[in-house]
Amino acid sequence: MRYTDVMRKTTLAIDDELVRRAAEVLGTDGLKATVDGALHEVIAAEARRRFTERLRTMRGLDLDQPDVMAGAWR
């Protein structure tokens, strides 16, 4: 079973002002949608960070190789 296949109910103490502000930024309505949206955004931000780091270091990419890039702009 994958983690994404599991849903559970829990009790949390949540700062209402933070939820309101996050909902405003995310354009969500309701606590569940806001929390889910915030979690998705954190995951997406990490993916963007990893991709940016990969571009910065060129690790695993061949974009810095002239023979590869020679045909890229034709």
Describe what you observe in this structure.
The structure is a single chain. The N and C termini lie far apart (47 Å). The chain contains 3 helices and no strands. The protein has a domain at 32-60. With 74 residues, the chain is mainly alpha-helical.
Short description:
The protein has helices at 16-26, 31-57, 66-69. The protein is mainly alpha-helical and 74 residues long.
Give the CA-based shape.
Answer: elongated
Give a short account of the largest sheet. none
> Could you report the average pLDDT, rounded to the nearest whole number?
89
- Amino- and carboxy-terminal Cα gap: 47 Å
H/E element sequence? HHH
How many whole angstroms does the radius of gyration measure?
20 Å
Structural class: mainly alpha
> Residue ranges: pLDDT <50 for 5 or more in a row?
none
Q: Treating each run of at least 4 consecutive H or I residues as one helix, how many helices?
A: 3
Q: In percent terms, what proportion of residues is strand?
A: under 5%
Helix content: 55-70%
- What is the count of β-strands? 0
